[in-house]
Amino acid sequence: MDLVELTRRFRSVRGASEALCEPLSPEDCCAQSMPDASPAKWHLAHTSWFFETLILEKRNGYRPFDPTYRVLFNSYYNSLGEQYPRPHRGLLTRPSFDEVLAYRGHVDRHILESLENGLDADDLSVLELGIHHEQQHQELLLADIKHLLSQNPLHPVYLAESDGGERASGAAVADLGWCEIESGVERIGFAGKDFAFDNERPRHRVHVEAFALGNRLVTNGEILDFMADGGYTTPGLWLSDGWARVVSKGWRAPLYWEQRGGGWWTFTLSGMRRVRRDEPACHVSYYEANAYAAWAGARLPTETEWEILASAVPVEGNFQESGRLHPAPLSSTGPPAQLFGDVWEWTASAYAPYPGFRPLTGSLGEYNGKFMSSQMVLRGGSCATAASHIRCTYRNFFYPEDRWQWSGIRLARDA
Amino acid sequence: MDLVELTRRFRSVRGASEALCEPLSPEDCCAQSMPDASPAKWHLAHTSWFFETLILEKRNGYRPFDPTYRVLFNSYYNSLGEQYPRPHRGLLTRPSFDEVLAYRGHVDRHILESLENGLDADDLSVLELGIHHEQQHQELLLADIKHLLSQNPLHPVYLAESDGGERASGAAVADLGWCEIESGVERIGFAGKDFAFDNERPRHRVHVEAFALGNRLVTNGEILDFMADGGYTTPGLWLSDGWARVVSKGWRAPLYWEQRGGGWWTFTLSGMRRVRRDEPACHVSYYEANAYAAWAGARLPTETEWEILASAVPVEGNFQESGRLHPAPLSSTGPPAQLFGDVWEWTASAYAPYPGFRPLTGSLGEYNGKFMSSQMVLRGGSCATAASHIRCTYRNFFYPEDRWQWSGIRLARDA
Amino acid sequence: MDLVELTRRFRSVRGASEALCEPLSPEDCCAQSMPDASPAKWHLAHTSWFFETLILEKRNGYRPFDPTYRVLFNSYYNSLGEQYPRPHRGLLTRPSFDEVLAYRGHVDRHILESLENGLDADDLSVLELGIHHEQQHQELLLADIKHLLSQNPLHPVYLAESDGGERASGAAVADLGWCEIESGVERIGFAGKDFAFDNERPRHRVHVEAFALGNRLVTNGEILDFMADGGYTTPGLWLSDGWARVVSKGWRAPLYWEQRGGGWWTFTLSGMRRVRRDEPACHVSYYEANAYAAWAGARLPTETEWEILASAVPVEGNFQESGRLHPAPLSSTGPPAQLFGDVWEWTASAYAPYPGFRPLTGSLGEYNGKFMSSQMVLRGGSCATAASHIRCTYRNFFYPEDRWQWSGIRLARDA
Amino acid sequence: MDLVELTRRFRSVRGASEALCEPLSPEDCCAQSMPDASPAKWHLAHTSWFFETLILEKRNGYRPFDPTYRVLFNSYYNSLGEQYPRPHRGLLTRPSFDEVLAYRGHVDRHILESLENGLDADDLSVLELGIHHEQQHQELLLADIKHLLSQNPLHPVYLAESDGGERASGAAVADLGWCEIESGVERIGFAGKDFAFDNERPRHRVHVEAFALGNRLVTNGEILDFMADGGYTTPGLWLSDGWARVVSKGWRAPLYWEQRGGGWWTFTLSGMRRVRRDEPACHVSYYEANAYAAWAGARLPTETEWEILASAVPVEGNFQESGRLHPAPLSSTGPPAQLFGDVWEWTASAYAPYPGFRPLTGSLGEYNGKFMSSQMVLRGGSCATAASHIRCTYRNFFYPEDRWQWSGIRLARDA
What we know:
Four copies of one chain form a homotetramer. Chain A has two domains: 3-150, Four Helix Bundle (Hemerythrin (Met), subunit A) (Up-down Bundle), CATH 1.20.120; 178-414, paralog of FGE (formylglycine-generating enzyme) (Alpha-Beta Complex). Chain A is of the alpha+beta class. Chain A is 31% helix and 13% strand. Chain A has helices spanning 3-20, 26-30, 40-54, 69-72, 97-117, 121-150, 220-228, 240-249, 286-295, 303-310; strands at 178-181, 184-188, 204-208, 211-214, 257-260, 263-268, 271-274, 317-318, 340-341, 344-350, 376-379, 396-398, 407-408, 412-414.
């Protein structure tokens, strides 16, 4: 990426993070609703800490904005010292939101100065990584805010809704079709010169048996059918760990769903609204995705299968930029649809290194590699993902019990 | 209390609560650092809910400020319906701090109008109770804010310090003397017409054996001696449950103490400062108080013993109004000293009903009586207690492991 | 107690402990069903450890049966060294039951030899204490075995039943009457030369207001009425901590009760049997006792009130020696009835030192004193208590949530 | 397998299970040292339950030995009804050990009769599966007994040791060599007619990049070097979840290791013995295996890589039949060594279905498939595995934190 474009991207992404906080009060930005989530303010600070610690601190004469931030806003980089305990991030009422904005301004000024004065190739790489890192945190920030607001009986509205969703229960959706792929040796993973995370590399050969993927996402209507058929009370549909979770947590619908009178409602960033049958199912765990697939006589795709199909499709969809921040009913006709945007698609693949994987050197080696156990790969981005952030080789990962991301389901089957 | 005085007290106490929040940001007022603590904003709202629910809602034509507050700000009154889960109070970023102030204004206006229009005797009783209730929450608010700020590595200062405490390690304190009381039948408990809580009644006869109480509080210096003598590592000094807590929590000093280099520092509402030997020991649990007493060859007083002695002493001391919000070194000479203010004094008495105890009727019966198990009585008020709130018959109560109140130690022994 | 009698008591109590294990298999004697309970084998070994460690080990030339037992069978004496972790006692499959019997034989032989050769007064005191200690463990052993067997869906029978209880639902019980006592200064506590625990001393004066105690125990029939009237679903009847326990544990009847078809059954040492309305209620926590009393418009007695009444009554009742090991329906006519035996009676008194309390010296100081927090006093002994073990001054103590002892309810009220 | 051979195998495996309990007392066989482990008696009963429930109960006129066993000894088959709670299996002191042996005799007689009278092909398949199922439980029984005995400070000896291991610290071990394999498309999985579990099927094509596997297992000596180099205190070597476990559990050596004076000892089925440098490292979690590999500049093999190499090697090694029940120092010279027996080898592969995987039908579908999340594949069998039970396609699986199996490490690297 040339310097001009990089500078533009930096300014734009940094500005976008702050724009996401505009509908929020300082209190909204400070609270933490569960250990997995972080306060919005913390996201704003941590993404700045990333640039400061990994670029600015190495430069002669740079004085940190506040030396205590080094610990406060370190997420999980053991090689960069201590970390303030993650479950307590919501207790950091100081620095204030305004102080964090001042911190952001300070870091922005120094980064932009550095860009003008010349950064070496390594620093430029880190800068580009930092931009993508910040885009990841934008999505986390939105998911975390949604979770926080959902805990409040006042059902606060983050974003006014434009589509009249509350009144409609959703149009009919075409029957699921299948996109078939032949068996053979294929290549997956990233090989180009553009930006990609270390975990997407190297591009490598894989053998796949013939398979087929659903031509669209699973819908809320289909989940309602699953529920009506006893999906959440039939242990035989579930992985053992999944069923244990169903029982211990009392799951009986996707996260944020609430029964009111005869029907189901769901909490969205636009407040409570009726569950629409035609929208893609969302906020399900891997366990629910797997159980639904079992019920439907299908299975989840491997990440290899997903990528083979997705590599033939343009990276277009319902992303953060649409301003909807909610999955959209199927609109396109040509199969396969909805591969990008709307919801992250759970795959059947555990998050693991590709053959020949090499983590980044230094502290950045902690970015991705150390999480390669017990998590599952998700693909395709969601309605909260920035369009410029996603690729068909992109590997997201969460624990199989996680539900607070915009995560959904695409079916697969052997051909 | 006459109506004019009651009105004056209402205005004054309501204003004082808000004044306590002036040094705080909206974020400070929203966060909750542990399930036992509540956000400052919640205290402001709950004390208003008390007046609204128990007085205003019974009046014709009153319209609640917001009906959802009935659940949000109900603390523990099962007879008044559901309660928002206590451990999640810090997630209530809405209503905002300003909205809560507006709620307070609304309640204040209606209460003052009601006072002008005439409240019946029952309502006036509840109003007076509500004023004392709010004073209790003022002290809780300060204790909760102290705990919250203590979690922040920035060591935020709530209150500028005026006494140069950081530099001084404290003057010498006179040796402990003893105030002796003969055995006999005495009376304790409240009998007058002024305000007192139900748990202070009825006044009743008790028999005591001859005893003596320390003529001052135990000091930090004495706690340091206890620590130096292995107090926190000698199980024989501790109650069994207390020792289990020492081990499981790793206690090795009072709460908020931190070892820096050679010396001990402590977090105060004025930030970190050196532990002064001449200040009363504070932020100790009942278990620590009991272990210290055992080490000192003494015991803790019963609440009967304490009240017999305290009833002969004027209710004067270092209270909230001093603006210090920290225990003060011994200044008075005449024994017994420091019975009121500075720190709540742990007694050896479990919190239980007095003979003939009758809880208030209706929902207010839940105010005190239902907590009469597993807690210990503390007496005398602290540096965070309003002077107009305390009496020699006043019974405070906390669990024996609690340390975040300004709680300290007075010794007793058999005469 | 003279030496002959002491020797007789020693032999008799030691034999009784082993006899209690006769209906049990080695596996029954090894398992531990919860951290509060201990395996029967552990009780057999620990009571021997007590004699060995506190008497034999001080004697010249004594060689311990096995030095590792010093840690394995130390219950909670920190002054006597490490303890094997209490929750893991059920993992001690070695030493075997037979080895523990051999250990008992070894200790018995040496104690009896010592008795012949002459023990000094201190040792004789410890020996007498050890005999009472073993009787305490006999009752614990029975309670622990009952809890263990109750976990087994096979409902094992420890003891064949002789009274045809399964078929009867119980005769009618006379209405509750009241025994009234005047107010005044009385004396409670133990003062004689016979054996008593340190916590029963010293005898001291107390002032009581006029009161009345129920002339019999609360029955299962009354508990069934309480249940039918929503007792377990009405928070207003409960202490706050008690209600929290009801909710978190799902309590809806006394421990061991189970609904089968239309009726209630209960697990006993003779297996499952119908709940008889005329039997004293049993296996209730302090919280349940307190809630029942509130529902009945009464309260629980203080230990002072209980002892004043009980001191006028002979120590007779349904004890371990009856071989029933279950509370018996009311038989006697003269009030007050059932003060001794049947069930331990929860009092409203927290377990605390009497004025002037002095714990035993040395390690035995850990016997009683260190448990004087957060527990409640129970009085009168139960159907599992040895008759020779109980006195009217005897103070038993358990946590308010404990239910696995034979604990029941006597009502009190202000006169 | 022909009927004669099947009958012989059935008799032999059933007898072997009971023989494993011979060194144990009934108490040893009843206790449960953690929720993951089961009592030996439970293993004996459950393996009988398997034959009874899945074969005998379907036969006309069969009367269950005891109908309550259907729940008591159901492990996790939701399709076969309720299960007694797993963490409480140690409370089942009844049925006694002898009753369980009688149960086994009853089942054996009926199975052998059925074999004589003719079982259909499906039943014969289930019978063969049941034999392998019992062999799996033999290894679990040994691992669970080892864990139980390890909790006992008496360090009970299950098996007298024959090799003088206590005195030797171990001979030198040859440097690690590498076995290299070219890249290409290979086949893995089971395809024959003999017995294999459903999870080993179908045989399918995979593409591998060129790789190399260590020619022997990692040794205790190498783990000691890792420890001496700060392996357990260097977060950068660990997966994130692994490091969290190191911190929360205080891991600083493999399970069962204990520092005594200057050296390390380890608990074995033959009691405590010195750690021998030349023995294969054992009782490590996946996290430790992964961290060791990172420290050694290598990685763990995928299960594909492991199977490709192992398929060229005879299935020979130190198995249960050697009677050693402990990994043995390297003896063979020809590479690669120790692929079978000694220790299960952690692979980098999450346990997942092979392409085209079909679980068994009916209740047996719960045998393997529902565990395909969050666990890692281990390969090769251990010193506690029966020789007739293992294959090169065999896939074992445990959670990455599990350490109580005989699990060890083989290194891999890219070629």
